[in-house]
Amino acid sequence: MATRCTHTCSDCAVLACRSKTEEKYPAFCLTEKVDHQLLDQVVQIYKDDEELGNIARVSACIEGEFYGRLTRVEETIEFIKRMGYKKIGIASCVGLMNETRIFTKILKANKIKYYTVGCKIGAVDKTEIGIPEEKKLNRGCGHESMCNPIMQAKVLAEQGTDFNIVIGLCVGHDTLFLKHSEAPTTVMIVKDRVLGHNPVMALYTANTMCSRFKRELKL
After folding, report:
1. What's the CA gap between 26 and 32, in Å, rounded?
2. Quick one: which H or E segment has residue 186?
3. d(CA 207, CA 204)
4. What does the buried/exposed string (b/e) look like for 39-52 if buried means 16 or more CB atoms within 10 Å of the residue's CB?
5. Rg (CA), the chain
6. φ, ψ for residue 95, nearest 5 deg
7. Predicted model pTM
8. pLDDT digits (tens, 9 = 90+) for 171-219
9. Hey, CA dihedral for 167, 169, 172, 174, is it positive or negative?
10. Domains, the chain, with CATH or none
11. Per-residue model confidence as pLDDT tens digits over 23-62
């Protein structure tokens, strides 16, 4: 029995799909093997769904006009304006509230309304959901509030936000927020205390002698 090919896009060094260069597609190319009926259905979604289609078009236009020129913060502001969003929800880690505060000043300067909810909303102790005392940051020395991303999403829904922004939620907590957010959502900052909230540096330096991934990459 033939072994099924398990190569995917991250195994490709050609990326001919960027310009539909079919003669350069590798044998395992997912674009070449794509289910065209499914592809047609997906393309039709962009055409038929007003909100999703508008998001796709506005995003592409911002990319085309400002590629390599605007920061992520500037792109986000531009996206908000072009989409006509009236009220922005911000789901922020309390540990990055200073960064969030700076961002809200920028929103205010651009006359964009916002509503911020910190991750510790409700001040529920971690033990309430089964987190052992010894797994708390304070190792059980009193109350320690859990991160509550589902509550953040619920509060922003109650506030009627039409676009949400995640700032610094932990891995997993951001997953819960994204799953429960009722409004379209983007992530502005991902938390990485070790690398100054710039997790891609772990990949840029993965092949260096000081990398923590030497074993995985067989350096």
Report:
1. 9
2. strand 185-189
3. 8
4. eeeeeeeeeeeeee
5. 21
6. -75, -15
7. 0.91
8. 999 999 999 999 999 999 999 999 999 999 999 998 887 788 877 777 5
9. negative
10. 85-217 (3.40.50)
11. 999 999 998 889 999 999 999 999 999 999 999 999 999 9
